[in-house]
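Hello forum,

I keep getting stuck at the same step: I have a sequence, I want structure tokens, and every attempt I make locally crashes halfway through. Rather than fight my setup again tonight, could one of you with a working pipeline run this one for me? It's a single chain of 125 residues.
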Amino acid sequence: MEVEEPAGLGERGSRMWRESLAIWSLTPAHLVLLEEACRIADRLELLDSILRAGPGDVNADVAQFADISGLLAESRQQSGALKALLAEIRQGQRGAGPAAVEVAGGAGVSDLSARIAERRNKSSG
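Reply #2:
Ran it on my machine without issues. Output:
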């Protein structure tokens, strides 16, 4: 059965949708969880782009909300939600053994922390 990609997914979420369906056979309920996981992956990509952008690169409307500690906290929360959803989705597989899933592009908190440290090193060096 061909499952249509949800409307409005970004590049990362769309890739995650396609690659996940290529390795998993999911129940309808778990497809809903996968859709939400893909949206969170896109959201993490957006948060990362805001954190990486220089002050002049951020839209003025976004800049007023661009408190770095708040963005980092939100990113951690979204990463945790993504991890929980992926664990639930893995349990919902039908007819497939456990598969290791890695969110492409490094959506984890440790990846984000490493990128922030790298950016600080470039700024001070």
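The helical segments are 11-23, 28-52, 60-63, 68-91, 109-124. If your local run keeps crashing, start a new thread with the error log.
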